[in-house]
Backbone:
C-alpha cells in the first residue's frame, strides 16, 4: 500500500520515542514509511529525501530528532509537504535543546512542533492522520471512534484510585 506519511528520525536511538507515532497510525490504519535520515550525519540523503518526498506520494512528514535537532527544519526547507517535528528527549538537557531547535523556525519555513518525547510522537501520528482525514471520510470516522473510545474510558472509570 502507498505510504502516505514518512516518519524519519536522526538516529536508530530515536525509535523507542518515534514508535509512538507508528502505534497510533497502525491503530488508525494509516500507511507509513519509517527511515533514519540525519541532517548532520547523512546530509546528502536528507536533501534527496526531502526534495523527492512529494513525488513519492507522501502527504505528511514526521521528523523526530534530539539535541541539536536540525532535521525537521532542514526537511521543511526542501519540501512543500507539511512537516511535523518531534523533539526527542536528550540525556544532557531533557529535550529542551531538541524542543527549542525545532520550534524556533525563522519566518517563511514552517514546522509544526509537537511536545517532547513519546506523547509528542503519538500526537504527531495523530495529527498527520487528522490532516489526511480532511480528504478521507473513512479515516475521519476511525479518528472519531478513537476519540469516543478515549472519552468513554475516562467517563466509565472516573475514580483515580482504580485502574
Ligand atoms: N538531531 C540529530 C540529527 C539531525 O538533526 O539531523 N541527526 C541526529 N540527531 C540526533 O542525535 C541524537 C543522538 O544520536 P545517537 O544516539 O545516534 O548518538 C539523536 O536523538 C538524533 O536524533
Residues:
Amino acid at each position: 500500500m502507498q505510504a502516505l506519511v514518512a516518519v524519519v528520525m536522526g538516529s536508530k536511538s530515536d525509535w523507542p520515542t518515534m514508535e509512538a507515532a507508528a502505534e497510533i497510525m497502525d491503530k488508525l490504519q494509516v500507511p507509513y514509511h519509517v527511515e533514519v535520515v540525519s541532517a548532520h550525519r547523512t546530509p546528502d540523503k536528507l536533501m534527496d529525501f526531502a526534495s523527492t518526498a512529494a513525488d513519492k506520494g507522501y502527504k505528511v512528514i514526521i521528523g523526530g530528532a534530539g539535541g541539536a535537532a536540525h532535521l525537521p527544519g532542514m526537511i521543511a526547507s526542501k519540501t512543500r509537504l507539511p512537516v511535523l517535528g518531534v523533539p526527542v528527549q536528550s540525556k544532557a538537557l531533557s529535550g529542551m535543546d531538541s524542543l527549542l531547535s525545532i520550534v524556533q523556525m525563522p519566518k517563511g519555513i514552517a514546522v509544526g512542533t509537537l511536545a517532547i518525547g513519546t506523547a509528542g510522537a503519538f500526537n504527531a501520528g495523530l495529527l498527520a492522520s487528522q490532516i489526511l482525514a480532511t480528504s478521507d471520510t473513512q479515516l475521519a470516522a476511525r479518528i472519531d471512534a478513537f476519540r469516543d473510545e478515549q472519552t468513554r474510558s475516562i467517563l466509565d472509570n472516573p475514580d483515580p484510585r482504580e485502574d
Remarks:
- The beta strands are 5-9, 32-36, 60-66, 83-88, 112-113.
- Residues 137-155 form the longest helix (19 residues).
